[in-house]
Amino acid sequence: MWATARTDTRLTIALAGRDPDAPEEHGRTLRADFLRLLALGVPPSRAELILGTGGSGRWRGDDPAFARACDAVSDASAPYGHVGQIRLTPARVARFLEELGKQGTTLVAAAAAAGVTPAAIYQRRRRDDDFAKAMDAARASARA
């Protein structure tokens, strides 16, 4: 039973003396399973598909502790598969723009330094005019 509890979140909750079918435990179960998948190197979008939920983005916004846990688990799991965090947190945006503002730094190198993919940068640029302006300003300062 104890060996099974390592991989069965519902059993672990029951062993902790709580009802795994209670509504508040359902969210905990999904969050725990999401973090477990991230730890195995599964990208966040794939983890959401596996769990059949699109809730991790909402959870991250609603729960700063969960967002920090996702970032820590993703960073720790990088050697095991998923490389680069898709989410552009304010800290990652600042790091990206700082690196992009250095002379001779490419967008790919700046994205890698911030721990995000170039695709995430280009997606953000297309949908966020302020981010696009900040990128342009960083590139201009690098040229100056």
Characterise the protein shown here.
The protein is mainly alpha-helical. The protein has two domains: 2-80, no CATH class; 90-143. Helix content is 70%, strand content 0%. The protein contains ten helices and no strands. The chain has helices at 2-5, 9-15, 23-39, 44-51, 56-62, 64-77, 90-100, 107-114, 118-127, 129-143. Helix 7 runs antiparallel to helix 8 (107-114) and helix 9 (118-127) crosses helix 10 (129-143). The protein is elongated. The termini are far apart. The model has no long low-confidence stretch (mean pLDDT 82).
Class from helix and strand fractions: mainly alpha
Distance between the termini: 65 Å
Low-confidence stretches: none
How much helicity do the residues have? over 70%
User: What is the number of domains?
Assistant: 2
Count of helical segments?
A: 10
Give the overall shape: elongated
Cα-atom radius of gyration: 19 Å
Strand-residue proportion: under 5%
- The number of strands is 0
